Amino acid sequence: MFRKFETTLAGRPLVVETGKMAQLAGGSCLIRYGETEVLCNATMAAKPREGIDFFPLSVDFEEKLYAAGKIPGSFQRREGRPSEKAILASRVIDRPIRPLFPKDMRNDVGVVATVMSIDPDCSPEITAMIGVSVAISISAIPWDGPISGVVVGLVDGKFVINPTAAEKEKSEMYVTVASTADLVAMIEAGANEVSEEDMFNGIMYAHEVNQQIVEFIKGIQAEIGKEKVEFPSNDPAPEMYEAVKEFAIEDVRAALDTDDKRIRDERLQPIYDAVHEKFDEVYPEETAKLDDCLYKLQKFVVRRWLLDDGKRVDGRGIDEIRPLSAEVDLLSRVHGSGMFTRGQTQVLTVTTLGPVSDAQILDGIDDEEAKRYMHHYNFPSYSVGETKPSRGPGRREIGHGALAERALLPVIPSVEEFPYALRLVSEVLSSNGSTSQASICGSTLSLMAAGVPIKAPVAGISCGLVTEGDRFMTMVDIQGLEDFFGDMDFKVAGTHKGITAIQMDLKVHGLTPEIIKEALEKTRKARIYILDEVMLKCIPEPRKELSKYAPKMLTTKIPVDKISEVIGKQGKVIQKICAECNCKVDVEEDGSIFISAIDIDDAKRALLMVETIANDPEPGAIFKGVVTRLMSFGAFVEIAPGKEGLVHISQLDVKRTEKVEDVVNVGDEVIVKVLEIDDQGRLNLSRREALIEVEGLTPENNPAENTRRPRRDFHKGGRRN
Hints:
Elements: E1 3-9, E2 12-18, E3 27-33, E4 36-48, E5 57-63, H1 84-97, E6 107-117, H2 124-138, E7 148-155, E8 158-161, H3 165-170, E9 173-179, E10 184-194, H4 196-224, H5 238-256, H6 261-279, H7 288-309, E11 324-328, E12 336-342, E13 345-354, E14 360-361, E15 370-371, E16 373-378, H8 395-408, E17 421-430, H9 435-450, E18 459-468, E19 471-476, H10 480-485, E20 488-494, E21 499-506, H11 513-538, E22 552-557, H12 563-567, H13 572-581, E23 584-587, E24 592-597, H14 600-614, E25 622-631, E26 634-640, E27 643-648, E28 669-677, E29 683-686, H15 687-695
Parallel strand pairs: 5-6, 16-17, 27-29
Antiparallel strand pairs: 1-2, 2-3, 3-4, 4-6, 7-8, 7-9, 9-10, 10-21, 11-12, 12-13, 13-17, 14-15, 18-19, 18-20, 20-21, 22-24, 23-24, 25-26, 25-28, 26-27, 28-29
């Protein structure tokens, strides 16, 4: 039966419709926020999946380009694999809903949010998150929701919920906050060096708004929600766990008590073998659950150490950071490289600079069509001591690359300050906790080594959490085991001044304000320490010069009506400039010109050619040109591609010239001086005046062999050095 529920969110109508579409899904709704409309569906398999030890949840955020009135740019003109933005939106929805499902359920659950119409002022990601919460809540799928999500911005010193496109441009932060009825369930933030106080207050402001929407969803659930189904638990029986615990707990404690992941893994393997040898015959139908018992036992040991003894697996203090090191210039011919190591986590980032035209072209449902700063993150299997084939970046790699990109974006210079496209690639060489934050540190080192004038260095660090009832404790710089068995991975990146990015992953239902405030303060202190004591001691500031292997970039701006002259018919003029100067020239619609070349002199020659074509040369300027045509009354000389002038026969030489062919031939390189530009814009040139001014020649000292030999200190199409 069709039902419609309405409320407002940030002054805009929020409408949920059920019972009209997708009626065979487990739970379905069409949610409208402004003119953004997303169809959200949630479905659960009838039976658990065999042979797995995890809850199989899939979340897909589908961008349909018709939602934005666009036809896909692919050859087949249809949507292909999800864009990076769609994958990131899926992750943002996944993170707050996943902890609310029963951990011992093995039935597949699929969540699909299809964007069918988009309003630039109403975020489709937020609309989808709320819609997914409605769809799961009204379905029969076991779930301890609902949740709500909003974005909070900081515009002119005031917090704004779900900022419009215009407000987003001015906002100092863009923070997605998801909440349950009581707790903050997820934080994803990008910010322009915002203080911890402003960040905390913004999160709490968003949390209050979320609680209102949660109540709205609860009302829908109360009216039309289905009864939640029972499911077979996959947890091992309590008596099995207790038997394994009694048999192996002391060995597990001894195995875990080391700061070396390799040693820990080596110590654990005999314990797994011994447990199976003893209990396989006791539980012949449930041997796979013995591994689950050992996992739970390790989790029990680590959490008891932390909560009861204040002891960490590797012996560190609660707020102690693992040994740190920073290096730059590890690779010879790249434009910049930096490596950051924290304990057994090690990331090498390489910076590559290119012309602005190398920016990534985007084909998505929003208005962003390109980006000039790209950050990619690779996580090979050898980094954790495993072996498996590389299949390209997965959702995790894409998410971590985007986090690093977001963390550094506020300090990347504008295209006017630094006219380059930038690609950073973070290669994880070794992983034992929080590689994404190590990639941020390594990327800062790499950027400074490459000579990119970043506004401030950025560092990242993570904070972990263990909870038990009302008890909680946080610890800085969590390693892999503390991430696996803890309740939170709270990642914060920023400068000395403030926060640039946050990503929070939880295994519990949510966080209290006290936990959030403590995590922000601990990561602030750790971030400052990493910057001052490690990174800035390695390289205190960006280098003043680029690598000799990096392209050198020059820019200028020409009148728009001169663009066609610079490009030439069928691109012949610009192609000739590029070929002669061994460079690349990019022309923007507003007349901005970007010239890149490995040799700065090549770039300078190309720049002078462009400016000569676009702007009439001044009388008195001297150029080196090429003779293109001979006439009885003189020779035409091209001083820049597509720009030529006449050298009258009387101006060909310091001596009297009878025939033009006696002095020059087509293809000769000659130096000429601009005499004037007539009323019709034609150039009158003089080789005679150039020889007198540059060579110091006169009729008395003009040997024949010098007549047609220009000096070598002129560039083709350019002034003398």
